[in-house]
Specification:
68 residues, elongated
Length: 68
């Protein structure tokens, strides 16, 4: 409609997945992030994430992967 490409992706685990190492929260005995967790530190690689930023990057990656 506005000359942009719109792609749908499966949002599953986009919030829970560490963009840097791919670790998924809720696996390996870790607790899943809740809506109150605005920031978190990946227990696998130790990187600090701002939750929505991390999720947005994951969603972008998924969308770009669909284009490729
Ligand atoms: Zn990580």
């Amino acid at each position: 409609l506005y000359g942009r490409q719109f792609i749908t992706i499966n949002p599953r685990n986009t919030t829970q997945t560490c963009r840097d190492c791919g670790f998924v929260m809720g696996t390996n005995g870790t607790d899943k992030l809740t809506l109150d967790d605005r920031n978190w530190t990946c227990p696998n690689c130790g990187i600090h994430h701002i939750r929505d930023w991390n999720a947005a990057k994951n969603i972008l990656d998924k969308g770009m992967a669909k284009l490729a």
